[in-house]
Amino acid sequence: MAKTAVVRKRKKWTTEEKAFHAVVYLIYGLFTFICVYPFYYLMICTISDTQMVEMGKIILFPQGIHFKNYMEIFKVQNLGHSAMISVIRTLLGTTASLLATSYMAYFFTKENMWCRKFWYRLVVVTMYFSAGMIPIYLNNKMLGLINTFWIYIIPGMVSVYNMILVKTSIESMPAELEESALLDGAGYLTRFIRIVLPLQKPILATVALFAAVGHWNDFFTTKLYITDSQLYTLQFLLYELLNQVQAAAQQIQYETSAMAQATSSITPTGIRLTLTAVVTIPIMVVYPFVQKFYVKGIMIGAVKG
């Protein structure tokens, strides 16, 4: 039996189409370069000779490669403990926010919820109006959250914006899925855990990304509510060191055994860049794992029907 080969004819582009695609690729390539280059520049500067960085001679490729900046930064007092606080806060805060936000969104999809429209509108109003910094501070103080780890978790458990995304996504689910479980005697919590959550992975991954980035980057909560240095986050430590970078450079140089060598390799600019890289790298590592859910989750949560 003779084998038949299927030949696919490639469509030939016209001159106008080639020019159009060339312009599109050029524009998107330019935008990609603009977005990626700052991160690339940050990384190559942290491993390049700091004197050359100070003089602005590092542009595309690292020169005088070394890792002394990272080695010396890790000697900063309480850096490891602050990093642990940030990691625990991000993991616990993201989990708590994900569960609270999605469960609240689930109940707002129920028609038989008492005064559902009233409570929903009342919650949405908080997106536009706030009590203000001082009332919020006094409220947290009366709740006993000042100078405790829970100030990082409890006040930000529910995000109204994320709740609306999850609510819209849940409403797009076929109602028959829950109705069949209801006939089997499943309650709200059972249906939420066994039916709703497994079907909302894209939007939940998106919400988790929003919450994780928010927790990881936040330093203002520490500045307002925390005076105990044992509860400082990595970002707040970065904020403090960036404000006192010259003193930090002197501290690192003092702690280095080879004083002359440290003086030539450690500069305030090197500290700024390296500290920024230290808090940026974890999010850059995590993001690719949830990026595939990001666009799908946003589209599901943003369009009803």
| Average pLDDT taken over every residue | 80
What is the number of E strands? 0
Which fold name is given in CATH as the topology of the largest domain? MetI-like fold
Report the span from N to C terminus.
Answer: 52 Å
Task: Offer a quick outline of the entry.
This protein is an all-alpha fold. Helix content is 68%, strand content 0%.
Describe the fold and architecture.
68% of the residues lie in helices and 0% in strands. With 305 residues, it is an all-alpha fold. The protein has two domains: 16-76 and 244-302, no CATH class; 79-230, MetI-like fold, CATH 1.10.3720. α13 (245-255) crosses α15. The chain is flat. It starts with 14 loop residues before the first helix and ends with a helix. The relative contact order is 0.13.
Which descriptors would you attach to this protein?
305 residues; mainly alpha; MetI-like fold; 68% helix; flat; disordered N terminus
Per-chain topology:
Blueprint: H1 15-46, H2 50-54, H3 68-73, H4 79-107, H5 116-125, H6 133-142, H7 160-171, H8 175-183, H9 188-196, H10 201-217, H11 220-225, H12 234-243, H13 245-255, H14 259-265, H15 268-302
